[in-house]
């Protein structure tokens, strides 16, 4: 004989009775009659053939079996709530997921700040962040494989909103021969030493980051690997200032002075590959990213948060 099926409503009522400490309190919170809650829980217990609650005085307490089943029921009702919210979001055009392409020279902390503000408003939207370099970012933009991109020079045909400037320092280990020079007068002096460069992530590109006149090079995927190599007193590298500021301060790395080029600066931009297809979640996250760099974006963020 098949046992009658319990309902989500019955489990939600049970959870409310436990969470609020009794039938009267739960009835007030749910705006239902106390008798209807009593009936729902009694029917649930009858259907399951297990006593879930026992009343002592004016309070209802879980039995051992009730504790186990209540814990499992919370996962069930939460999953259903999330499923219903997802259906609502999709019906409103709210994206269930977003992908961001980020040049590795963009400060991760800035993006994390934006994501931290986005999460409470995200409605469960999942975020993927892809680190990319030069033409690799362009590929993702041109192929519309991402919702938002942060890169330096935008690919042709795409509008870009400037976010910030990234300053590069030319650095080496303090014990490297180049560190013994006051000012490097000629680039040819650099070309005689090994250079560490960052590989372009483009599928068909042979380009790498920075000045590339040294005959001997080590090519790596990111600046963290470059710093490990520099720490072994090997080579020199152009690295974003925010990644080496502490190392320079504590003497772990040395900033080189190249005549006519003490520092290099790159402007980073935010790009939306396809404005016509941009959804509300993407617009909100874009505003929050802008907010990290421009206080005037507060107005934009406020308007889009209301939408």
UniProtKB/TrEMBL annotation:
Keywords: DNA-binding, Transcription, Transcription regulation. It comes from the Bacteria. PROSITE patterns: HTH_LYSR. Transmembrane segments: none annotated. Residues 7-63 form the HTH lysR-type domain. Pfam families: HTH_1, LysR_substrate. PANTHER family: HTH-TYPE TRANSCRIPTIONAL REGULATOR, TRANSCRIPTIONAL REGULATOR-RELATED. Belongs to the LysR transcriptional regulatory family. This is LysR family transcriptional regulator.
